[in-house]
Structures are given as structure tokens and as C-alpha cells.
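Hi both,

Apologies for the delay on this - the queue was longer than expected. I finally got the pyridoxal-5'-phosphate-bound model through. Below you'll find the protein sequence and the ligand SMILES exactly as submitted, and right after that the C-alpha cells for the full complex including the ligand.
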Amino acid sequence: MTGFDHIPANLSEIKTRIAAQAKAWSRAPEDVHLVAVSKTHPAAAVEAALAAGHRLFGENRVQEAAAKFPALRARYPDLKLHLIGPLQTNKIRQAIDTCDAIESVDRDKLAQGIAAELAKSGKRIDLFIQVNTGEESQKAGILPREAGDFIRRCRDEYRLPVVGLMCIPPAEEHPAPHFALLGEIAKRNRLAQLSMGMSGDYELAVQLGATHVRVGAAIFGARETKDR
Ligand SMILES: *Cc1c(COP(=O)(O)O)cnc(C)c1O
């Protein structure tokens, strides 16, 4: 497949479904943001989405984001990019230069590094704290029982602009309890934004309070690389 004709149609269908789901649960459709996850797809695919009027994107690797997005941003200055993958401390500066939000803040060293770089650059970005709701040893994210203290340190000690929480539920479990748990932790800590839900479960995520759904394959098509 060389063309990108499927992208506007997919975007339009997903936005319709999100709006319908929001209305069904008495939520304002404009409170749910579709993060179009373009990882592994070429800049031309992102451009097809931009041409269709979409502006919010997600990438899971800083280097890929830095390779693809600055040229697109020059032509679409209102484009927004969220980093949704794990961030190493040596890439913090590049992440802040390239992205408008980091959704994967999950440890003190990273939080402190982001605070230092933000102070240096004077740039303002939004931060989400990633919670490992399934307590999977191989997965990034702060454990649910440690989330409250970590959120407090991020806000009060490191003075970070934390806006919400993000989770990636275990692939083999039903996502509903994980979405619900993320919502409870956010409520307890008075955080307004919830990034949860992907291609297979974004409607359920909207039902359970998502303000950001991160959808890749259902917009851009299947990825060839299976591990991400
Ligand atoms: C790839 C990815 C997504 C999108 O997954 P799809 O199944 O393609 O919709 C969402 N969130 C994160 C963190 C990802 O890495």
C-alpha cells in the first residue's frame, strides 16, 4: 500500500465514534482528544492526517519524533506532539525541544532531569505520570501504591507541570479495571487528564473518563514491527 487515502477516512470514523461514546456517557466530546500515534509510519502518513485537519500526534521514541516532526511543525505551527514512550535521561533535552507533552514520567531521576531542563529552556510542556496499573515487572510506570507520593514530589518538590496520568494495561487482561484504577488515582490526586485507550479499546476508555486516547493502527494501518 503506497497511498494514504485510508487515513482521513479512519480519522473521521474514529472521531465520530469518540463523540458518540462521549455523548452516551454524558461527556462533552471536545473533552476527549485523539492522539494519532504515528510511530513507524513515514512523515507522508502524518501529512495525510494534517491535510485532513488533524493536529495532535504521538510518538514513542524521541529520535523518531525528532527526525519526523520539526519539518512538519514548520509548515503546521499548531501541530502538537506527545511523547508516549519511555524516556531516557540523556534524551530529556531533545524530548523537550521536540514535543509538547511527555506522557511517560515515572521516576524521580527523570522528573528531576525534566525540571532542570525546563528551567533552563523556559519552555512550557504538559506532563503526564505513567502508572503501571498491571504491576508488570517489564513495563514502565510508577506502581499504583507509590503514585500518590510520586505525584506530590513532582508537583511540590520538582515544581513540574503535571496535568494527568497515563497507563498501558497488560495486553492479556481486560482493560476496564486498569482504566478505572487510573481514574481513581487521578481523582484522589486532583489531576484532570487521563491518557488511556488504544486502537482496540478507546471507546471503553472514553466511557471510563479518558481525556486522551492514543490510537495508532486504527488510523495509520498495521505496523510491520511487531514489538511496538
Ligand atoms: C503504539 C502505542 C499506542 C497505539 O497503539 P495502537 O494499538 O496502534 O492503537 C498507544 N500508546 C502507546 C504508549 C504506544 O506505544
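Main takeaway for now: Residues 37, 39, 60, 84-85, 168, 198-199, 214-218, 228 surround pyridoxal-5'-phosphate (CB under 6 Å).

I'll put the files on the shared drive as well.

H.
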